[in-house]
Design goal:
AOC barrel-like, mainly beta, eight-stranded antiparallel barrel, 0% helix
Amino acid sequence: MKIQGEFDVKLEPMDPYTRGSENIKLGRMAIQKVFKGDLSAESKGEMLSCMTNTAGSAGYVAIEQVSGSLSGKSGSFVLMHYGVMTQGENQLTLEVVPDSGTDQLKGLRGSMNIEIKDGKHFYEFDYEL
C-alpha cells in the first residue's frame, strides 16, 4: 500500500548529553507530530543531530513512536530516521522498526518519505501489513 498526507511537527530543544567540540555542534530535540490523512496519528520521539562548520553539511538520527490509525487499523509502530546532508544534498531514510507494530498493526513493514513544500510537511508511506 502507498498512502500520502500532511503532518504538523513540533521540535523542542532538550539538554544534550554532550555539546561537541572543534566546531561540531551536537543537539538533542523532542519530536511531536500529528499526521493527517490515511495515517491519522500522533507521534513522540527524540532526535540527535550534528551540525558541522561546512554550510549544508549535517546529520541526524531519530526514533519516534506513532500511535493512531493507519488505513482504518489501530495501533502503534516505531519509525527510525537516518538523515545526512552533504553540502545541501539530502539523503533521508525513515523505516518502520521490525516487529514494533502493536494491536491491528502487528507485522507492519514499510518506509516513509518526507517532503517540505512552502513550509508544510508531507509524507508518503509505502507499507505492507
